[in-house]
């Protein structure tokens, strides 16, 4: 093992802990434990600090154009190579919840890919994306810049439920 391997493992672990603790916080909130939910959110934020430090230490954060190129590549990998066999395996095993979550993710990754391509073109032209506010579907993560659709094209969620990201 090298230091870079260790940083990659640490980055993955801290990133997963962040997401897991945020899910735990939502459950604690639902279960009527708001202080426990706040603790989970606080530790999740600390895990993000750790993950970002590890990513920077391994040279994983570059300029915006390079970061966008990496994001475009990563999203393409997810919808073209990663999720299709995972969906097939889940279907073969009769795991309906997994099929739904992975199919939603696969479709949304295509949207993210397009949004990152749009952002990359803007940055290459020396521009930003403008004032359009990003909004996401709280069910599947479908993402738009600007107004939400009447209904999510991926999962059917009402557009009024989309969450604005500041």
pLDDT averaged over residues: 97
CATH class of the largest domain: Mainly Alpha
Number of helices: 4
The radius of gyration is 18 Å
Low-pLDDT stretches are: none
Indicate the overall shape: globular
The figure for the number of domains is 3
CATH topology (fold) name of the largest domain: Ferritin
Biggest beta-sheet profile: 3 strands, antiparallel
Helix content: 55-70%
* CATH architecture tag of the largest domain: Up-down Bundle
Number of strands: 3
Order of helices and strands: HHHHEEE
Structural class: mainly alpha
Describe the structure.
With 166 residues, the protein is mainly alpha-helical. It folds into three domains: 3-57, Ferritin, core subunit, four-helix bundle (Ferritin); 63-129, Ferritin, core subunit, four-helix bundle (Ferritin, Up-down Bundle), CATH 1.20.1260.10; 131-166, Rubrerythrin, domain 2. Helices cover 66% and strands 5% of the residues. The chain has helices spanning 3-30, 34-57, 64-92, 96-124, and strands spanning 134-136, 143-145, 163-164. A three-stranded antiparallel β-sheet has the order 2-1-3. β1 (134-136) and β2 form a beta hairpin. α1 (3-30) packs antiparallel against α2 and α3 packs antiparallel against α4 (96-124). It is globular, with a radius of gyration of 18 Å. 14% of the residues are buried. The mean pLDDT is 97.
């Amino acid at each position: 093992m090298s230091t870079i391997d260790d940083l990659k493992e640490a980055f993955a672990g801290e990133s997963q802990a962040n997401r897991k603790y945020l899910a735990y916080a939502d459950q604690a909130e639902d279960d009527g434990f708001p202080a426990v939910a706040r603790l989970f959110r606080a530790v999740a934020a600390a895990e993000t600090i750790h993950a970002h430090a590890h990513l920077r230490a391994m040279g994983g954060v570059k300029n915006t154009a390079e970061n966008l190129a990496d994001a475009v590549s990563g999203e393409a990998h997810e919808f073209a190579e990663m999720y299709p066999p995972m969906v097939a395996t889940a279907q073969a095993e009769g795991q309906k919840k997994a099929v739904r979550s992975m199919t939603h993710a696969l479709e949304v990754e295509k949207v993210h890919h397009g949004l990152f391509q749009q952002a990359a073109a803007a940055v290459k032209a020396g521009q930003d994306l403008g004032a359009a506010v990003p909004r996401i579907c709280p069910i599947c993560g479908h993402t738009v810049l600007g107004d939400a659709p009447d209904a999510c094209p991926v999962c059917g969620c009402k557009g009024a439920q989309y969450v604005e990201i500041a």
